[in-house]
Design brief:
By secondary structure, the chain is mainly α. Helices cover 78% and strands 0% of the residues.
Amino acid sequence: MPPNRMAGAVTGRLAHFLDALAFLSRLAPPRSFTDASLIACVPWFAAAGLVLGCLFALAAALALTFFSSLGTGPVAHTLGALAAAWLWLGLELWCTRGLHWDGVADLGDACGSGAQGARFWEILRDSRLGAFGALSLLLVFSGHWVALAWHLAGGHWLALTLAPAWGRACAVWLAASAPARETSSLGGRACAGASPALSRAYTLAAALSILVLLALGLGFWQGLALLAGQCWLTRRLARLARAHGGLSGDFLGAAIELGQLWFLLATVQRV
């Protein structure tokens, strides 16, 4: 490939990566997206998640070092891990503007209501928080907190780094598994960018990540459970979306946080 074309290709890929980072977080400067740029940045979702994971893990490591210096013994270590895990979560909420957590709450309210048809979408798009949405947030947040603290107490830094990348990959798997309700929406653009070939590439990357975790001490059955559980979660969300006429951004946001939580729970090891 001629140098000019190679430089152009690298620049284009970097632009798509920065678009994904700006779309999923506040770490890149805000920008105006076109339909084409939104579709083109979807393959870079996991890479953006990996950057977030590195940032969160670094901040949690510094926090754990600080809190551990305040006391010794198992109680102090546990409290330090809980505080560092809370910081990990707080940083994620700030970096992502709470966007994906909003999907957890909205989908919780819509599914918990038992509504069908237009009423389901009316509840899903309602900005007010209901009981089912609040309970969903509480369960997912507390699950994250406990799992993160466990990983921090055991020094499982690779899992802490990979979790956000895995969560963003979940959005791609889901977008490739069900149609969008509205093709002109953000969910529609994500579905347009998530081809079956991209989904297979993400699956291969996930399998390689699990092999690395196995080499570092993850149990074989844990790796199998991680894959099986993720497959079930994606199929369940895709089936739910098809039953209600297609995917929206709330479905994808919920998939990110639920997939991230499942990864953290499935990869816990002995402390």
